[in-house]
Amino acid sequence: MIIVMKERALEAQIAAVQEKIEAYGLKAHVFRGESKTVIGLIGDVSKADPAAFRMLPGVEDAMPVGKPYKRASREFRGERTVIAIPPVRGGDRGLEIGGNGVVVMAGPCAVESREMLLSLGAYLKESGARMLRGGAFKPRTSPYSFQGLGVEGLKYLAEQRSIVGLPIVTEVMDSRDVEMFSEFVDLIQVGARNMQNFALLKALGQCGKPVMIKRGLSNTLEELLMSAEYVLNAGNEQVILCERGIRTFEKFTRNTLDLSAVPVLKRESHLPVVVDPSHGVGHWDLVAPMALAAVAAGADGLIVEVHPEPAKAVSDGGQSLTPRHFKEMMEGLEKVARAVGRSLA
Ligand code: PEP
Ligand code: MN
């Protein structure tokens, strides 16, 4: 952080700022210019609050110069984080997210029944999906909408995992459920609406399972990185970032899928980046083009909604691909991945 003093700041005011800096256990470096004095803070400035300095007499401004996220930052780790998803029973090999292979996660918005997964799981795997998605606890805007099958839904996902051998990814909404999720789930998803549920993030920091955090509807990328920082700081290094679209004034799409998030997050952080084109656009016919674009932009994975009969879906039918459309999308993805020097995992 640097502190800029007002033009005619008194020596006593400069001394008071220095004293406050030293009270934090930091060193103050004073640069005297022709008209203004600037004071630099040296040491771990994470606990020094710029606002506390701005309040002091004679201070014009206090500006952080470093990044607020540390463990999530690119500088913190020399190499990219690769998250290993161990092989599941019936699966042939483990998975890596963040390596050369692009990992496609697919499945229904919500687990609606055991049967729907039975009809879908094997087809998704054959078409190239490497993880099965499906919400058991659903964050719905209306309390009167279907809230998910809960634990029963998790059991159907776990059953399907053992039948087809695809690891499962599903959303946790309550920190009290984290322990149970750690037992059942291979990748724990934090939904957009819970991106800043800090109690949940802290609990996930201690769960020992990989966590995927989706960007909030109106959150900046810096805020997404700070949410990752919560999980990392609590002791869990297995964090994946997910861009799923943000709210803008545009109405042709449900959200605006911010694909620039991919190169930005990869520049700023060592963590893998996944894109959710389904919630990003909200219309099934726009999903494949944006999925291809996400891979071209450098995404390490995709999470896509697929429903055996979208017209009958209890949630997000309009943005769900049919199994056949999913297969077609996978063919395109293979080519784009190859064109950018990658492959499908
Ligand atoms: C979901 O993946 O089913 C979901 C609810 O997504 P989001 O949290 O991004 O809205
Ligand atoms: Mn959905």
CATH superfamily placement of the largest domain: Aldolase class I
Task: Tell me the total number of β-strands.
Answer: 15
Number of domains: 2
**Low-pLDDT residue intervals, each spanning 5 or more residues:** none
Distance between termini? Answer: 43 Å
Mean pLDDT: 97
Q: What would your notes on this structure say?
A:
With 345 residues, the chain is of the alpha/beta class. It folds into two domains: 62 residues, Alpha-Beta Plaits; 262 residues, TIM Barrel, CATH 3.20.20.70. 34% of the residues lie in helices and 19% in strands. The protein has eleven helices and 15 strands. The radius of gyration is 23 Å and the shape is elongated. The model has no long low-confidence stretch (mean pLDDT 97). The structure holds phosphoenolpyruvate (PEP) and manganese (II) ion.
Give the topology, please:
Blueprint: E1 2-5, H1 11-23, E2 27-32, E3 37-42, H2 50-54, E4 59-63, E5 83-85, E6 95-97, E7 101-107, H3 114-127, E8 131-133, H4 151-164, E9 168-172, H5 178-184, E10 187-190, H6 198-204, E11 211-214, H7 221-233, E12 239-243, H8 261-268, E13 273-275, H9 277-281, H10 284-297, E14 301-305, H11 323-339, E15 343-344
Parallel strand pairs: 7-8, 7-14, 7-15, 8-9, 9-10, 10-11, 11-12, 12-13, 13-14
Antiparallel strand pairs: 1-3, 1-4, 2-3, 5-6
Helix pairs in contact: 3-4, 3-11, 6-7, 10-11
This protein binds phosphoenolpyruvate and manganese (II) ion (MN).
